[in-house]
Amino acid sequence: MIREKGTVELKHGAGGPAMRELVKSLLVERLPREAALAATAVGPEDLDDGAAIPFGDRFLVITTDAHVVKPIFFPGGDIGRLAVSGVVNDLAMMGATEVIGLTSSVIIEEGFPLVSLERIRQSMRETSLEASAFVLTGDTKVMARGELDGIVLSTSGVGLAQRVVRDAGLRAGDAIVITGSVGDHGLAVLSARHQLGLEGDLRSDVAPLNGLVRVALGAGGEAVHALKDPTRGGVTGALVEMAQKAKLGIVLDESAIPLTAAARAAAQILGIDPLGVANEGKALLSVEADAIRPILAALRAHPLGAQAAVIGRVVSDHPGEVLLDTGFGHRRLFERDAEAIPRIC
Amino acid sequence: MTNDPTRLEFRDPARGSELLTRLEHVVERAGRRISVMHVCGSHEQALARYGLRTSLPRGLRVVMGPGCPVCVTDAPEVDAAIAVASRGVHVVTYGDMLGVPGQSISLEDARSAGARVSVVYSALQAVEMARRSTDAVVFFATGFETTAVATAAVLDAQPPANFFVLSAHKYVPPAMEVVAASPDARIEGFLAAGNAAIITGYGLFEPFAAEHGLPVVVAGFEPLDILAGLIRLVELAVEGRAEVVNAYPRCVTRDGNRPALAKLFKVFERRDGEWRGIATIAGGDLRLRREYAAWDAREHFDLAPIADAPEASELAGKCRCGAIMAGSAEPSDCALFGKECRPDSPRGACMVSSEGACRIWHQYGLGLRSERELSTLRVRESSA
């Protein structure tokens, strides 16, 4: 719903219900007819991580992502690593672990130090090598001092998938797997911004996940029913979205959720729920219960998946809801606009 | 094994189940419904955070009393801070205070309209801001005896002459007296806040327990602390023993922190004062003693509301914050809860503060569905 006098608020970019509502009402429902008719297997109306187009016996997956993190250099990464990882991960979450190529658009504020730009370029290159995903073309613009805060980096990616894995594909009885500890990225960025002095232990998890997803799909095949990366909105946001799309419930076992001691401490100091905080190097998988063992083994053998764990299960009751079993009782997890933390990715 | 610093002994679910079973037994033995009150936002946070309200015995009602310092700060106290800030003086305060409405607007609204308002995390930080400036800095000081001690400490350390305190500090024990005497609440015992008792000592509650014939159990904030405290409290209530028990002995002593208490009452004196929505509490407000008048904002600034303040909103009249803090209503009893009143558009103080019952319930989804539904959410049995 668009109000005549409304303006865009920060919550509209927070990855939660307000953002989905804005994207749906302003963009998706007003697409030109031609776009709606295009032969997509996964299209804009699905609000998934990207679009999938049938391409011979495979699928071409395309996705795009803009990055505005503050500070641009943070413990464990920077905006360059984030830009490459973000788009590679969006492709991987659709099953497109083989990246054909990336594009990069950068908008820079007048006065931005060249040495920082070089650091970002170097970081993008290193991340590209890790992911075997390279920028093939790009664009650069400069805006006058004060017209922009530092730098905005936008990347797009194209990849190929044998099978498109949807975020809505979970089934009752599935196990929910996370590939490692939760909340590290958002908490590291916030801790750096508030100068909490926890940076030594607290590092962003930002990393390209296509290699990790490849081994999981290799071990699990069709038993991997759904994939999603818990970025903005965190684990709670991602799982609520998955549960709502699939019209199924998810029950999480809090004691099984991996959390580093540093993240636990930072979350308590900042008064933030680590489940609601962004991750940039983790994936959530919904997998057939029988296939847990080989998938977990494959994930744990990969350097980015050593802490992979089963954290919950999909149930047919409580459709659209995510419940947390604390060991002392239960509570429902909510996606929240109000807890939006601006500019973390 | 016990040397592992990451092991959280007071959050051990296995011991939690044992305590829940014991609690169920003592409530069952009572053979009637028992209501007890806690008086601390942090206790409510823990109850909600760990989903404890879905596991407590049905015969036990645990209500939150006047335990949110931000919520009980009276509207005219907020208006005084707004008046100072609106006249161009730099006002600094705790973040939770920004959104709390006065009679008509909040400090946040005043800031949007051009007033100078900043957030601080401590009294010490407020003093440092004054030190770095030549302008007056007015610290709008709120909170119970826990934060009042910190304000007292900076005032007793000769802060700079451009530092002023606008005290809205409150003292909890007399508020417990008022709630205990109220016939609506039907409270059979109090779970006292362990953090405040670290300063006041549990001995403070002994005359209270004797006078009102009600047991008081001082409890900590981990889930096992709360369960152990509730078991003891229900036992005492059932046996009709108006005793004070310290269920937080790893932090709380009978005498409390004597030097801190001495400092508190060296700087502050107790006065009668209005607690928002509850009552006038005799000796419930902490105000600066005459000896500290040099730093008392009430002595140096015009606190009268600015002339063109807008009218109070109509919705504010429907807010049930007062009844909720007095323990006679729950957040979900309020018609505004979760509808017109949400964390992103609060109508009452209980939804503004992270210590407020409404905010906590909303944050953890309590009261957004009926309590009956919540208590039947036995997830373990329901599937697999």
Describe, in plain words, how this protein is organized in 3D.
The complex is a heterodimer of chains A (345) and B (384). In chain A, the strands form three sheets. Chain A has a seven-stranded mixed sheet with strand order 9-11-8-12-10-13-14. In chain A, strands 1-2-7-5-6 form a five-stranded mixed sheet. A two-stranded antiparallel sheet of chain A has the order 3-4. In chain A, 30% of the residues lie in helices and 24% in strands. Chain A contains nine helices and 14 strands. The longest helix of chain A has 18 residues, at 114-131. Chain A has helices spanning 17-27, 33-37, 79-92, 114-131, 184-193, 210-220, 234-246, 261-270, 292-301, and strands at residues 51-55, 58-67, 73-74, 77-78, 98-109, 135-143, 151-161, 175-178, 224-228, 249-253, 284-287, 309-315, 322-325, 330-333. The two termini of chain A are 27 Å apart. In chain A, α6 (210-220) runs antiparallel to α9. With 345 residues, chain A is α+β, with helices and mostly antiparallel strands. Chain B has 384 residues and is α/β, with parallel strands linked by helices. Helix content of chain B is 39%, strand content 16%. In chain B, the strands form three sheets. A five-stranded parallel sheet of chain B has the order 2-1-7-8-9. In chain B, β5 (137-143), α7 (145-155) and β6 (163-169) form a beta-alpha-beta unit. In chain B, α1 (13-30) packs parallel to α11 (223-239) and α7 (145-155) crosses α12 (258-267). Chain B is globular. The model of chain B is unreliable at 370-384 (pLDDT under 50).
